Structures are given as structure tokens and as C-alpha cells.
């Protein structure tokens, strides 16, 4: 599934249109030799229903565990009882004042120290490319 998505990444808008036309849920046919046909949903109401209200109705088998073993033994790979305990743990962590304060300061620092300077560099480069395209002059660059 992933290599196929990477090949068609330039047509992502077509995929979004397919999702919108299919009510945000559609069957995905995997390669015939893999036997991985799945039902994909991106509808927030469906995801809310699966993750919160009826989590115990969606039992994950060995095949699911094998596919998502990259995620480890977290909430994604655990069944109802263990997932409920992990959910309480995660909620306690996310509500902790220290975690919220630290995550806010880390995010702010990362934005100011990395993303903002990077966007300035990209703006300069884009101006330079625009000038080159409009003027036809490949020797000049803007500061």
C-alpha cells in the first residue's frame, strides 16, 4: 500500500476527491498475492466510534499485531482491557501541568529556532527563482 501511495503522491487531490465521494470510507484492495484487503475510513465520526465508544467490539488479531508491530505495544496494538489502562495513563500524562508547560516551551523553541529561519531561507530562494524565471537571467541572485 505504501509504495503505491508514494508513486501517486503528486495526485493526492484526486485521492481526497475519491474520499469525499465515498463518504470518507472505502474498501482498499491490496495486492492479490498479499491478501490484504482492508476497509479504510477517515470519517471523524467513525473513528470516534471505533476508538472510544465501542473499542471492545473491534478485536485485533495476530495479523493486525504483525502489521502494526512497528508501533510497539502501545494503545494501537492493544485490545480493550489493556488499551483502557493505557488510555487512562496517557490522559493523566497529557493533563499534567509540567507536561503541558514543557511541550509548549519545546514547541515554541522549535518554531523560533528551526522553522522560522528555514522559512526565511525558503522565501529568499523563492524570490531568487521567481526573478530568474521572469527575467531569464540565470547569473543573478537576490540577497
DSSP strand (E) fraction? 5-15%
Counted beta strands: 2
Structural class, from helix and strand content? mainly alpha
- The total number of structural domains is 2
Q: What characterizes the major β-sheet? A: 2 strands, antiparallel
Low-confidence runs (pLDDT<50, min 5 residues)? none
* Number of separate helices: 6
Identify the strand order in the major beta sheet.
1-2
Average of per-residue pLDDT values: 81
Topology pattern, helix = H, strand = E: HHEEHHHH
Features:
143 residues; mainly alpha; 2 domains; two-stranded antiparallel sheet; 61% helix; flat; monooxygenase
Question: What would you note in describing this structure?
Answer:
- The protein has about 140 residues and is mainly α.
- It has two domains: about 80 residues, no CATH class; about 40 residues.
- The protein is about 60% helix and about 5% strand.
- The chain is built from six helices and two strands, in the order H-H-E-E-H-H-H-H.
- The chain has a two-stranded antiparallel ribbon.
- The chain is flat.
- The relative contact order is 0.04.
- The model has no long low-confidence stretch (mean pLDDT about 80).
